[in-house]
Amino acid sequence: MKIKDLPESSRPRERFLEKGSEALSDAELFAILLRTGTKGENVIDMSNRLIKEYGLDKLFDCSLKELQEIKGIGPSKAMQILSMSEILKRIHLSEKPIKKITCAEDVFKFFHDKLKDKKEEHFYVLMLNNQNNIIAEQEISKGILDASIIHPREVFKPAIKNSASKLILVHNHPSGNPDPSGEDIEITEKLVESGNQIGIKILDHVIVGGEKWWGWKESH
Questions:
Q1: Among the four residues 127, 149, 179, 199, which has the most C-beta atoms within 10 Å?
Q2: DSSP H helical segments within 20-125, as ranges?
Q3: β-pairing, 166-172 with 213-215?
Q4: 207 phi and psi, to 5 degrees?
Q5: Which candidate, 69, 63, 73, places its Cα nearest to that of 30?
Q6: Helical (H) or strand (E) element with 160
Q7: For the segment 175-188, what is each residue's pLDDT rounded down to a tens digit?
Q8: What is the DSSP-derived secondary structure letter of residue 181?
Q9: How far is the CA of 7 from the CAs of 3, 12, 25, 157, in angstroms?
């Protein structure tokens, strides 16, 4: 049955206007987000199916490609879902702002929600001023870390642009195990040496695992 053929009291948008968002089910709220269904399946039925089969948390954890492999979800709906997921992550981060870095645990807390569900390795630099306050962050690469492609130029360019005096290197291990590989150590030592030469100190390299972290500084 098409949405327009339902009584107004059963349509998500009309129910929202009449009773507010709190009165709507997860499927009804998701239906408002998705807006339209497909031929043979209205948006409420689609929402119920997706939540039953995957759950909202799993849907929000999918990549753009994975979402588009699900029946009824094309590029537009996939982007709508991931946009909502990103907004929720940013809200969560803004509720627990960390302005100053004092240890590896601060770095872990700052990046955990951003990196915990990533299925690839993401390499960031966190830029600090002389007081160790956060100036900015920059993603440098995505995929398996390779010392041959993590060039010092790409790491220090945003630091120079933002007038940062210190950097912290950060990346995640999708396996959940934060123990460093030989490549991780090689990259760290290479960038520490480069930083010393140009006067921008690498304070640490923090690897974010599932619920744990590894810090280069603490291991030395």
A1: 127
A2: 26-34, 43-53, 56-61, 64-68, 75-95, 104-115
A3: unpaired
A4: -105, 125
A5: 73
A6: helix 152-161
A7: 999 999 999 999 99
A8: P
A9: 9, 11, 17, 59
- Residues 6 or more apart from 196 whose CB is under 8 A from it? none
State both tokens at 24: 């709507």
Tell me the pTM. Answer: 0.62
Q: What angle do CA 124, 161, 146 make, to 5 degrees?
A: 30
- Which amino acid belongs to residue 41? E
Cα distances from 77 to residues 30, 64, 69, 167, in angstroms, run 11, 10, 12, 38
User: Could you give the domains of the chain?
Assistant: 3-93 (1.10.150), 104-215 (3.40.140.10)
Question: What are the tokens at 117?
Answer: 């569900």
Q: What is the pLDDT of residues 77-136, one digit of tens each?
A: 999 999 998 888 777 766 656 689 999 999 999 999 889 888 899 999 999 999 999 988
Closest CA to 145 of 107, 192, 181, 104: 181
Sign of CA dihedral 107, 91, 133, 184: positive
First to last CA, the chain: 65
Reduce the DSSP state of residue 58 to 3 states and report it.
helix
